[in-house]
From TrEMBL:
InterPro entries: F-box-like_dom_sf, F-box_dom, LRR_dom_sf
Originating organism: Ceriporiopsis subvermispora (strain B)
Name of this protein: F-box domain-containing protein
Residue stretches making up the F-box domain: 28-66
Length: 488
């Protein structure tokens, strides 16, 4: 193949200049890429070294700005830095984090913050805490925030009443993600962001209620997270508002907040009965994943099967979990289980009732009242899980803090340090014939994690990941199982 040559009418000097220009551009791109991984303080140090680094680091320095935690002087200086060259600095800001309730001497610095905020017109993400008093004393703050018309993601913590709520209502109609939290219950929340019904894909709500149907449904919404307030939720209304939600998270605070246990139980029964009756009219067929507090999930009675369910269950709520598993028939289950009060046979039967269960992530919490001795741990969990039709298992044994104190007959860090994890994993694989992938961790023996993988031919491979330190650096030891385990 002929080697290309430079034409005679092209001056070598021009070629050299072109190459130099290309090389300089490449070097600048590389510098920009490198500094994009640095933190703000590191960027400031790098920028002082030379003009090239100063130019390359300027954009990543201001792309993600956090105006907290900063001292008042540092906050003032940074805002003045943005104001000194709006076209070259503020225009590059893409993400803003501003917690006004955490800024000391706010009155002296807020006017400068407002001026800088108004220049960040290309910002796409805003995380902010604000009070009614902030907005009342500084009307320009409302104007500056609502002028950010390119926002896609907004997270607001609201302290106060109508002015702060009005900030949500004034957000641009292009939002795809909205998270807001009220310090007091706020009714009729849907009307605050009704104008975003066509674009909103993710919604996290705390301390707000949905009372009436607005004029539009949120058909684009796929992920919904709720923290129920004192008012009960009409699940039929939620189904109408968010007909296409696939991932639902009911945060751990129950919507039943009364202290009296009998009243709580009566209310939960009433809500479940009402929601079961509503199932006949409409079911939430779009749901794929549900996680959160078991009481709320049980009372909601969604009336649909799901791919994934995640919750925490105590022995006194076994019947409640059985109802949920029967209703939802998940294929993937993520459970946190304090073992106090459980009988192995009862728990095994409960899991077996989930007929379609193929994947299980199980966190077993052992304390002095769990009745499980160190020598019985392997046998106990094999009884819990044996013969379930699982293909994937992720098992964690967690020893409660009181187990770290010596108490004869109960698991301690010392008594579990000699636990033969390898033998344990092999027993699980032997008893669960359908397993294709499994992992096991014991928190007091947490410098390692055992994993087992089984090929389509039935041969098993055991892996041990070892952590050298808390940073998570690891290496893997692999060994094929003995012949007696190849077909297990």
């Amino acid at each position: 193949m002929a080697v290309p040559t430079i034409a005679r009418d092209v001056r070598p000097r021009s070629v050299s200049a072109a190459k130099a220009k290309s090389k300089a551009s490449l070097n600048h791109d590389v510098l920009c890429y490198i500094v994009s991984y640095l933190e703000q303080r590191e960027l400031l140090n790098v920028m002082e070294t030379c003009h090239a680094f100063h130019s390359a680091a300027l954009k990543p320095l201001v792309q993600r700005i956090s105006l907290w935690p900063m001292g008042t002087r540092a906050l003032q200086s940074f805002c003045e830095f943005l104001l000194a060259d709006p076209a070259g600095r503020a225009v590059h800001v893409r993400e803003i984090r501003l917690f006004l309730n955490s800024v000391s001497n706010l009155r002296s610095v807020l006017p400068t913050i407002i001026r800088a905020l108004a220049l960040c017109t290309n910002a796409e993400a805003l995380t902010m805490s604000v009070t009614d008093q902030n907005l009342q004393l500084y009307p320009d703050l409302f104007t500056a925030v609502t002028s950010l018309r390119k926002l896609k993601t907004v997270s607001l913590t609201v302290y106060g009443g109508p002015r702060a709520a009005g900030l949500i209502a004034a957000m641009p109609s292009t939002l795809t993600s909205l998270e807001f939290s009220f310090d007091e219950d706020w009714s009729d929340a849907a009307r605050l962001f009704e104008h975003q019904s066509r674009t909103l894909e993710t919604l996290h709500v705390r301390g707000a209620h949905f009372v009436d149907r607005p004029t539009a449904q949120f058909e684009a919404l796929r992920e919904l997270s709720l923290r129920f307030g004192e008012a009960s939720y009409d699940v039929a209304l939620l189904k109408w508002l968010f007909p296409n939600v696939t991932h639902l998270h009911l945060e751990e605070e129950s919507f039943l907040t009364w202290e009296d246990a009998d009243v709580r139980e009566d209310a939960a029964q009433a809500h479940r009965k009402r929601n079961l009756e509503a199932q006949e009219k409409a079911s939430w067929t779009s749901l794929k994943s549900v996680k959160g507090e078991l009481r709320s999930i049980w009372a909601a009675a969604f009336g649909c099967t799901v791919d994934s369910l995640a919750t925490r269950v105590e022995s006194c709520h076994a019947k409640r979990l059985a109802d949920v598993l029967h209703d939802m028939q998940p294929r993937e289950l993520d459970l946190e289980v304090p073992m106090y009060g459980w009988e192995a046979g009862e728990f095994h039967a409960l899991l077996h009732a989930a007929k379609d269960l193929t994947s299980l992530r199980l966190r077993l919490e052992l304390d002095q009242d769990s009745g499980v001795k160190p020598d019985d741990i392997m046998l106990h969990t094999v009884k819990l899980l044996g013969h379930l039709p699982l293909t994937t298992l992720d098992l964690s044994l967690v020893i409660a803090e009181d187990h770290y104190d010596y108490d004869e007959g109960h698991p301690t860090a010392e008594s579990l340090s000699d636990l033969n994890i390898e033998s344990y994993v092999r027993q699980l694989a032997e008893n669960i014939k359908t397993l294709r992938k499994a992992s096991l961790r014991v928190d007091v023996n947490s410098n390692s994690e055992w994993n087992i993988r089984r090929s389509a031919s039935g041969k098993s491979l055991l892996e041990r990941a070892m952590w050298e330190n808390r940073l998570g650096e690891s290496y893997v030891e692999e060994e094929e199982t003995d012949d007696e385990y190849e077909d297990c």
